[in-house]
From TrEMBL:
<dbReference type="InterPro" id="IPR027417">
    <property type="entry name" value="P-loop_NTPase"/>
</dbReference>
<feature type="domain" description="ABC transporter">
    <location>
        <begin position="9"/>
        <end position="246"/>
    </location>
</feature>
<dbReference type="InterPro" id="IPR050107">
    <property type="entry name" value="ABC_carbohydrate_import_ATPase"/>
</dbReference>
<keyword id="KW-0067">ATP-binding</keyword>
<dbReference type="Pfam" id="PF00005">
    <property type="entry name" value="ABC_tran"/>
</dbReference>
<dbReference type="GO" id="GO:0005524">
    <property type="term" value="F:ATP binding"/>
</dbReference>
<dbReference type="InterPro" id="IPR003593">
    <property type="entry name" value="AAA+_ATPase"/>
</dbReference>
<protein>
    <submittedName>
        <fullName>Sugar ABC transporter ATP-binding protein</fullName>
    </submittedName>
</protein>
<keyword id="KW-0547">Nucleotide-binding</keyword>
<dbReference type="InterPro" id="IPR003439">
    <property type="entry name" value="ABC_transporter-like_ATP-bd"/>
</dbReference>
<dbReference type="GO" id="GO:0016887">
    <property type="term" value="F:ATP hydrolysis activity"/>
</dbReference>
Length: 260
């Protein structure tokens, strides 16, 4: 994919409030196919709320949600999934007492008449893992309880892309992982984008962000401070955008020395 690929998701002027508290203010955000876009911001900046608006968990109060250049109305996670948007949350939502295949098809089981079509599910699961070049899982019939943190993350990501997803959002995928497992997951994240999927990576780890991201979007107090190519900014500039909403000429406007 070229860096100028047309965004598959375009959010324009998104507002979201919970009671009297406005969490998102006029947020615009682009997600491009074949790219990893890092969504960064301090705790309380609005990252989770923005992602839940994209995923249909929270309705937006104002603004436009465009998918493949057409305005859409996403009222539920089912609506988002129908578009091809999948979110892998930090808790992974995997069942320890089930094996990999059962987890990947949980709630979406394939059936042949009244019985489960295990052969088809095994074939689809294996094909998905092979397509992502996953080599760390020895058997797709392993129970999830026996997997390492990195392997669990891999299964959760494979589950998200199993359904021909076009957009995959990953919430802190390396937060609880060691160095080797982090490297494996970051390789998988990069591979998703190289396969043409639009990937959003939520992370507090700037090393991870710069290791795999094509673009970086920084939220500050519910406003989009900047969305830039990763190659155009430095580590310290991103930290300044996160902590103050501005870095030099980049970021939110100011009035009387106060970031708006």
């Amino acid at each position: 994919m070229t860096a100028t690929a047309t965004p598959i998701v375009q959010l324009r002027g998104i507002d979201k409030s919970f009671g009297p508290v406005q969490v998102l203010h006029d947020v615009s955000f682009d997600i491009r196919p074949g790219e990893v876009t890092a969504l960064v911001g301090d705790n309380g900046a609005g990252k989770s709320t923005l992602v839940k608006c994209i995923g249909g968990i929270h309705p937006i109060d104002g603004g436009a949600y465009l998918f493949e250049d057409e305005q859409v109305h996403v009222h539920s996670p089912r609506d988002a999934a129908a578009l091809g948007v999948e979110i892998v949350y930090q808790d992974l939502a995997l069942c320890d007492n089930l094996d990999i295949v059962q987890n990947m098809f949980l709630g979406r089981e394939k059936r042949r008449g009244l019985v489960l079509d295990d052969a088809t599910m095994e074939e689809m699961a294996a094909k998905t893992l092979d397509g992502l070049s996953v080599r760390t899982v020895t058997s797709i019939r392993q129970q999830v309880a026996s997997l390492s943190g990195g392997q669990r993350q891999t299964v959760a990501i494979a589950k998200a892309v199993l359904w021909n997803s076009k957009v995959v959002i990953l919430d802190e995928p390396t937060a609880a992982l060691g160095v080797a497992q982090t490297a494996q997951v970051l390789e998988l994240v990069r591979r998703l984008a190289d396969n043409g999927i639009a990937v959003v990576l939520i992370s507090h780890n700037m090393n991870d962000v710069f290791a795999v991201s094509d673009r970086i979007a920084a939220l500050y107090l519910g406003r989009m401070a900047a969305q830039v190519k990763a190659s155009d900014v430095t580590y310290s500039q991103v930290v300044e955008l996160i902590t103050s909403g501005r870095s030099g000429d980049l970021g939110l406007a100011t009035a009387n020395g106060v970031t708006l």
